[in-house]
Amino acid sequence: MKFFKVLSIILIVCVVIFIAVGIFLPKTSTLERNYVLNAPPLLIQNEILELYNNHLWPIWNTEDTSIVFTPLENGGGYRWEGKQVAYGECRYSLGVDFTIYDYISFRGEEMAETVWRLEGADPVKLHFELTIFAGQSLGARWTNLFIDRMIGIEIDRMIADIKDDLESDGLKPDTP
Fold first, then answer.
1. Domain span at 97
2. N or C: which terminus of the chain carries fewer CB neighbours within 10 A?
3. Sheet holding 124-133: strands in order across?
4. Is residue 56 part of a domain?
């Protein structure tokens, strides 16, 4: 009986700490990355748009096998729904300067915004910026602390794949 009393106290202390610290965590978090790709901006933009056609954020694909994706009516994104990941929407739009903007809502609330900015002709500097809005969600605020390890590594892998595809197709040789 004493064991359960101690365990209960430990659990209550952990919950209080989670809430108390979570209240003071930032409501937004931004992940930024910069890359250089040796390819024309239009080809890079098309590769990024292909990521959206394949449901850009692969985390939704792997955690819930019941997930269903539905294209948006205007073709600029998709909706998803699954038993474990609930539901959401990813909308994207194109800027005149090869910039791609996306907006992600989750359970009806705006959750994230991404900007893919392509600068230059060849090579192209790609600036990636993802901002996550945690709002009042303490869980999302805690998640924001680990944004680099959770999402940054995946973004680096996706850009490396794009770089390999574009630079190994004979478009441009790799530069040292």
1. 27-168
2. C
3. 28-37, 124-133, 109-119, 100-106, 86-94, 77-82, 68-71
4. yes
What is the C-alpha to C-alpha distance for residues 49 and 76, in angstroms, rounded to an integer? 10
Tokens encoding 80 = 């998803």
Which CATH number covers residue 57? 3.30.530.20
Q: How many helices (H) and strands (E) does the chain have?
A: 6, 7
Residue pLDDT, tens place only, 100-141: 999 988 887 878 899 999 998 878 999 999 888 877 777 778
Digit-coded pLDDT (tens) for 19-46: 888 788 888 888 899 999 998 999 999 9
Please report whether residue 5 resides in a domain.
Answer: no
Structure tokens at 172: 């441009």
Structural domains in the chain (count): 1
What does the angle CA 89 – CA 93 – CA 94 come to, to the nearest 5 degrees?
155
Burial (Cβ within 10 Å: 0-12, 13-18, ≥19) of residue 76: middle
What distance in Å separates the CA atoms of residue 85 and residue 60, rounded to the nearest whole number? 7
Instruction: Confirm whether 54 is domain-assigned.
Output: yes
Q: Residue 131, class by beta-carbon neighbours within 10 Å (0-12 exposed, 13-18 middle, 19+ buried)?
A: middle
